[in-house]
Hints:
about 50% helix; mainly alpha; two-stranded antiparallel ribbon
Amino acid sequence: xxxxxxxxxxxFREYLKAFYDxxxxxxxxxxxxxxxxxxxxxxxxxxxNYLKLIIEGKRNLSQEMCKKFSRxxxxxxxxxxxFRLLVEYCQEKDPHQRTQNLKELSExxxxxxxxxxxxxxxxxxxxxxxxxxxxxxxxxxxxxxxxPASLLKLLRGRVNESQVQRAxxxxxxxxxxQVDPENHLAKKTGSALSGIDDVPKELVRKxxxxxxxxxxxxLHKHGPHEREISGFTLAMTEKEFEWVxxxxxxLRKQIQKEISxxxxxxxxxxxxxVNMQLFPLTDxxxxxxxKTQERTPERPPSLQL
Length: 305
């Protein structure tokens, strides 16, 4: 059993259980194996079963308790902050704030990966936030002048002029675009931003978290004529899930290919973000299920706003 790495978890209770199981397995041959009371002693907590209550979801962690838990988990200063961010994300009930917390956690982990060398500085400088990707796409938009003031007017108030300038500087420094100094029109000169297949996973998570958050804003800010946000919920087998995932990836690549070919002939009117999401809402039942009578499945209800 490997030691659980904090950065691999998005649920702090699962992380704590993995830590406890690891310590239990590591000390199983001892006369007195690792126990919940050992964790409480290391964390300076009076209740001997407090860790068990947290793992089972019967208690939440305060910021003060987060510090005590980090002491027992032997966290570094960086890990202590990461653990607190993870706890805040998991325990938040408000969907809007929960999304914000996840965005903050993703950004922290991405910067940590940069510091450790998992993400190299050149990649970070090129694609570290959503704005870089949007500006790169705006090269294919009609009538766009690549000055910070002009770009800012088109970005619907999501950023400020200094942020636009920094994103432009990254694209220019990486030689992904060139800007004519006379008419301020831009053209693409690199292919670094044509896809995200080679971008490190922590950086991809950071960028996608930012874009999903912007999508949440669009749900409230824009009318149905400006967006297409819909979804449906249904039960699937693992084989069906793999088929749906394959079809979604195929559709994404098809759309990208066809639109990219059109952009070689003419420019677009606006820049759009297309998000495709497929994720589990429940766990599978572990025990053997009784056979049920076959029936024709109903069409799943669709949520479209």
